[in-house]
Each structure stands twice: as C-alpha cells, then as structure tokens.
Amino acid sequence: MYKINKCYLKKMQTDKVRRRALNEGDFGIWEWNINTNELFLSKKVKKILGYNFNFTENMIEFIINIAYEDDRVLAIKDLYAHINGDSPFYESTFRIKNKDEEIKWVLFKGSILENKTSHCSLLSGIIVDITENKLFKGYDSLTKLPNRIFFLEKLNNSIKTAKTYHKKGALIYINIDNFKNFNNNLGYYFGDMILILFSELIKMLLGYHCELGRLGGNEFGILVHEFEDVKEIEEICYKIHEYLKSPFEIMGDQIYVTASLGVTIFPDDSFDTYELLKFCNLAMYKSKCKGKNMHTFFDKQILETYLRKIQIEIELKNSINNNELYIFYQPQIDALSNEIIGVEALLRWNNNKLGNISPDEFIPIAENTGYIVQIGNWVLERVLRMVCLWKEKGYRLNTISVNISPIQMKKSNFKKGLLNACAKFNISPCLLELEITEGTLIEICKEEIEVLNELFESGIHIAIDDFGTGYSSLNYLINLPINTLKIDKLFIENIQNRKNKAVIKSIVDLSESLKFRVIAEGVETKEQMDLLIGLGCNLIQGYYISKPLPENELEELLKHRNVKKGVD
Fold first, then answer.
1. Which helix (H) or strand (E) holds 527?
2. pLDDT tens digits, residue range 409-438?
3. Strand pairing partners for 430?
4. Rounded to whole angstroms, what are the CA distances from 537 to 87, 486, 490, 496, 502?
5. DSSP states of 313-336 as a string?
6. 141: exposed, middle or buried (C-beta count within 10 Å: 0-12, 13-18, 19+)?
7. Residue 393 CA: distances (Å) to CA of 369, 385, 390, 485, 564
8. Residues in a beta bridge with 27
9. Taking the alpha carbons of 61, 66, 72, 75 in that order, is the dihedral positive or negative?
10. Looking at the predicted structure, is the pLDDT value of residue 440 above 90?
11. Residue 101 per-residue DSSP state
C-alpha cells in the first residue's frame, strides 16, 4: 500500500479548494486584443449571459449585442472612456436581456495592459452578475458578500443572542496585506479578481456557524456566532494563513496574497458593535506592526497602548505653546586632545499630564501626524538661537548636530527655511550638521537627494546616524553628500567581541578612504574608549564623556573645558 505524505495531502486539499473557488465563483473572465480584435470569453461569461457568442468579433460588438437597448449608449460610452484614456480603468454597470428574455444586471471591470514585447494592447477584466445585489442593497456588488451595514446588523443581532443565552461569539477583522501594490502594479481588474477569489476561498473555509462580510476596500469580517473554546477561533485564523501560502492564479500569473487578522471576543471584550469593530481594527494593526501575515487577539494592553497614543497626539499639539519642549546637548570630544569639538542637540519633552516622554515614543507619533515639521522648525530655531548666544560669548565649536526627520525633508521649503534660519542668527551653514538615520536612506527619493546636494554645497554637513544597523547599500555612501558616519552604540556595547571590532575597524578604514569623519556613539567606559582609539576612532560621544546636558550646564562645561574661544 502506498503511503500518502501528509504535506502532499494538504497541498492537494488546498488546490482543490482553490479550483472550487475559481470555478464556482460568480464571475467570468474576458480579454480583448485591441490590435487584432480577438476576444476571449471564459465559460463562466457565457453561463452568466446565456449565449455562446461565437459570432462576436470584438469587445465593442460584444457590448452592443448584449446590452439592453436603453443602456446600450451608456455602456459603449464607459468602454470608450477607458480606451481613450479618459478613465484610469474600465467599469460599467448595465442591464442585459438573455435568451429567455430575462433582464439581468451585470458589472464589467477591467484595464488595458500594454505588452511591450508583442507590441499589443490587451483590455482584460471580469464580468459579475449583480442582479441580486441590485434587488437587495445589503450585499456588496463585487463579492456578493454582506456589505458593511448589513454585516454590522448581523453582528449586533449575534451580540444580543450571545448576551441572552450566555454564549460567546467572535469577530475576526481581515485586511489583505499590501493590496495597494496589487492595484498600482497589476491594475484594478487584478485587484478585483483578487478580492473575488479571496472572498470565495474564505467562504469555503468557514463552517455553518460563521458568516463572511466585506467591510470595505480590502477589508473583510468573519462573524462567528457561537463557539465553545477559543481554540476554534485560532483554528480558523491558522487555516486562513495556511491556505494563503499557495498563490492565486489569475490570467496566467501567480499572485501570492497574505492577510493580517485582528480578533475580538464578545461579550467578553464588549457588548457594543462599533467598539468591537474598533478593538478588532486595533488588533489587526498590531498584526501589521509585528510583520503582517499573522493574527492578534485583542487585549487590554492593546487598548491602553492605543489610548496612550491618542493622548500623546493630543498633548503633542500643544507642547510648543505650553513651553514643554526643550533641548539637551551631548558633547562630542576628540579623545586624543580631550577637546570638545561639537555637540548633538537632543529633543526632550516633559508634559504637564504625562510627565517625561521618551523621544522613541513621541517622535514616531509626531511623524505620523505630520506635527514633526512644526516641532523640527522649533528645534532648529531654538538651537541656532543658542549657538548665536554661545558665539557672542566667544565659545567656538566645530559642529552642532541636529536630527532631521524624513518628513521634514519632503517639504518643498525645507532648504530655504533652513538657510534663512542660519542667516537670521548669523550662523555659518558650515557649523550645522544634519543627522539622518541609515534607515531613512532606503526611503529617500531623487528630489530629496537633490535637496541634500544643495545643502551640502551651501556648506551644511550631513551625518548618517546609527550607521551599520540598517540595510542600505554602500552605493549611498558614494552618491550621497556625506561628511560624517556615526557608529551605532550596539557595536560599542560589545566592542570586545572580535566580529564587532572587525566591523568598527572596517567602518573607520572606509571613512578614512572616503574622507568622512567617524564618531562612535554610546561610549560608556574607559575600556571602550581606549579600544576605539586603538581602532583609529578618536571622536567620541557617550555617557563616559558626558550625559546630555541642559543649555546652562553645557555652557558651564564649555567654560571649564579647553574649548577654544574666538570667532567663526
């Protein structure tokens, strides 16, 4: 007797479900070669319309033949709107009359794909029978699933039933990962077919006690009316992830789809429909943050994190007006001469309600809300004003480093505002050094590189912070205007490690060859400093030299350290 491998059996089961999802889905596929006038219609198209259409030569004739007389002009107009470039994709809803004189509503969706190899234009897409949807507004026109309003009505009824009979139910919120990329790169008709196939696949995985609905866009919801053990809900989530490991095959292309899920239990988490939906959404975004393609159950910690984030957003908007922001400065020294050669400006926030909040927590929130631009302008103004005062007192530093968010760099007036601020306080641009993280290099675009080049040419220095921890190409070091590399403290913490020494030495040698300055961050012991000096890195920043200091304390340090006095 032959033994069937379990993995092979699972794959057979997966393929079977996929074939059923494709063959039993209520949509047909068509493709029109505009150059040759050849028209392909799948069997499902003919089944939906009730004709064989052997006489049809092209798409235009096809639409004329099937469209109901009163809808024919509009149907042809919709087709030409896309062909002529007036619409980014083809979408048309109209009536047809089949061979039994029965009126049906159909939805056509598609897009033109230019094939550069064969020099032909293909208009491809789908047709969906939406007759029932036109008669009953509670269903989504594309997937024929309950729409958001109808689905939430079902959820509300299920909550009431669970409460009355002391049962438990669940809501699973599904978001297809990176769906925007499918639409942008493959076209809207591909995106629609993915939504249809995805919905058909999920429906086949669910039992009689579950209902699937489309909440909008690429988001779906599974309503589990009743369950005994939470393992049943976990099993549904695992099954979805498992079946999505195999690709969808659409128009000959294999499309891999993943999904992030968020789960909430009722009535344990809440009795309120919209609150449950919010909790599910939060849990789903936690899945996104953890790397996507996974599921997360809602808990109180997720809610507390969300509420704190909201509170930080609210308080952050008033932080400047309430004088809650301030700048600390951390000295940078030349370990060979023991001279302070520069300082890094570090933003701090002490809120009246929340107390001291770490930059690691509030900076990402400021970037997501766009408030980082206003804060960044405040930081530059404050730092340059302080440098101007130190200059008047005779203290001269080689550089003042300021961290810059990529959000700030995207603003069209960033360069102009920065140079105007330097002029306002009579500060030479060559005194200012902008620090951008290595991770930012991955996101940087051509326009931002041009801005950096212009700033570099004006004399402003550019430093790459946290160097060595990102995944940026060394090509950036050649093509970007860079003055300084800052070795991340993670390498310094384990500098005794042979591999870490080798990496640090490589960075130092590379910087010397490219004529970059190199600064070691996070130096906390004399041993670390001595090892760095031995490796050729004598520019040091860290707690061993000094912790970040408020303005008045830094000024006292400048008085007593051998900082040269003079004029820039």
1. helix 526-534
2. 888 888 899 999 999 999 999 999 999 887
3. none
4. 59, 11, 16, 15, 13
5. HHHHTTTTTTT-EEEEEEEEEETT
6. middle
7. 39, 13, 5, 30, 11
8. 128
9. negative
10. no
11. S
